[in-house]
Amino acid sequence: MINQIAAGEVIERPASVVKELVENALDAGASRIEIATAGGGLNLIRVIDDGAGIPENELELAVSRHCTSKLSADIHDIRSLGFRGEALPSIGSVSRLTIRSRTATADAASEISISGGEVSSLRPAAANRGTSVEVRDLFFATPARLKFMKGERAETTAIGDVVKRIAIAFPAVRFTLSGADRTTIDLPATDDSPEGRLRRIAQVMGAEFPENSIGLDAAREQVRLAGHVSIPSYTRANSLQQYAYVNGRPVRDKLIAGAIRGAFMDVLPRDRHAVTVLFLTLDPALVDVNVHPAKADVRFRDPGLVRGLIVGATRQALADAGIRTATTGAAGMMSAFRPGAPSYGHPGPANGHRSFDASYRASGAAFFDPARSPQRPLDTGFGEEVQAIFAAAPVTSADARAGSGVVDETQLGAQLGAARAQVHANYIVSQTQDSLIIVDQHAAHERLVYEALKQAMHSRPVPAQMLLIPEIVDLPEDDAERLASHAETLARFGLGLERFGPGAVAVRETPSMLGETNVGQLIRDLADEIADNDTTDTLKDRLDRIAATMACHGSVRSGRLMKPEEMNALLRQMEATPGSGTCNHGRPTYIELKLADIERLFGRR
Fold this sequence. Notes:
Elements: H1 2-10, H2 14-27, E1 32-38, E2 44-49, H3 59-62, H4 87-93, E3 96-102, E4 109-115, E5 118-119, E6 123-125, E7 130-136, H5 143-146, H6 152-169, E8 174-178, E9 184-187, H7 194-205, H8 208-211, E10 213-220, E11 223-230, E12 235-236, E13 242-246, E14 249-251, H9 254-263, E15 273-274, E16 276-281, E17 287-288, E18 299-300, H10 303-320, H11 327-337, H12 356-362, H13 384-392, E19 400-401, H14 409-412, E20 418-423, E21 427-431, E22 435-440, H15 441-458, E23 464-474, H16 477-485, H17 487-492, E24 496-499, E25 504-511, H18 519-533, H19 537-554, H20 564-576, E26 590-594, H21 595-601
Parallel strand pairs: 1-8, 13-16
Antiparallel strand pairs: 1-2, 2-7, 3-4, 3-7, 4-5, 4-6, 8-9, 10-11, 11-16, 12-15, 13-14, 17-18, 19-20, 20-21, 21-22, 22-26, 23-25, 24-25
Helix pairs in contact: 1-4, 2-6, 6-7, 9-10, 15-19, 15-20, 16-18
């Protein structure tokens, strides 16, 4: 019963079993791990590795509760993925479990089985070096748990997600996952270098991610951060593509997720999420990995340091990367330009019982009139009269022309090139040495104005307005104390407050930009933010949102005709402004189409 209670915490679904067994294989030093499943993992889970194996005299201990060989003398110095000794006995208490293992020095393998918690005697077996764990009929001993399982496809998807999440952290290990539906995930081993890790990330997340990501490498005190984050124009509709690792352990930590949101706060729409792979490395004594039964959450000794490192390093990387746009934008542009079926093709068969030729003859082709064909030659030829029509036409169909056919070579060498035309009074077409670029003038200028407003706002204290009568806000004593401790920082943002007896604060000034605001709600939101993250980002967020609104109304509007000098000046400002690849709402400000892609559209390549 004790083991079944433990299984209720550790073994939530088949994916939990796969996670525990794969972690055991990695702790054993495996270089190749093969996973096979059937029935979404409920019928069968088999994990085979080529690790160190379990000695024969320790195999019975391995399936005993709280028996582990992974802990050193210091319980705070945990460097292995598993350490509690709960996984195997918990799995064996709710399934039919068989373990076959052989060490490098053993003459033969040994095997042991558990069925619903009943342990069999040890017996010899034939096997290569390593360990094979087979789990059948999961939850047969606890049928009530089966009612909470999802469909086979959902469970199989969850297992695949677990394997991919672990595989990113161990690029030097080959992972193979096969199922009864014949789908296979095969992730060949790379190496532990940054390039090898990026290749493994591409195997899991797709080849597009490395092309649309920015590398991170930063350290603060005893914490090091590495990994990759997507550029702002490459996003997802959910946060499932955000991977975080602490000392190689995959985690789903609220603090890390919040830091990612904070880092991308003013470059993404509210309903879009960045794609990230973050690796945190720190002294094991500075992080507690024993706060969650499934080890999915961790607790940092200094959460503010970790959050600040993630936010600061990500924002700095985005700024250093300059302006970049997602490659998916060009792909969408290519597909929009691709020609469809030619209009002069013969019609297909009218129904399934008639051949193509018969259908074509019956469709009236015998009455074809060349004179009415859209492909007929021009009646007047292409002589002087027709050429005169072209000569009389406007020099361009654009709303404004940026200049003559000759442009400055210096501008052509710039990242966004030289402006050539403005079309539909909103889109600037520019030319570089090897590409064509289309810029949304309103979105681009909106970002430029927003960044200028933010810089002006945060480089000096925000103007404040004095309240005629100070507003007293009642709060729990802890919240009031937290706010008072951050009073100096809040004053820089134009919010003046002080303690007003037990469990209350008096607000004497509010930021002028906020205008008339609900002071009580603002103070309570700030108290919650400080309690969660020890930051005052809530007030900064509100001011940034107002700056974004001001930027939207103060930027170049759609429909305004721009002079060539204005267009080129806008392009140069975009090149000099961090984050100008997206507007305040997260939309791309420009799309780039390479000359090679254009040539492919016209069949030149």
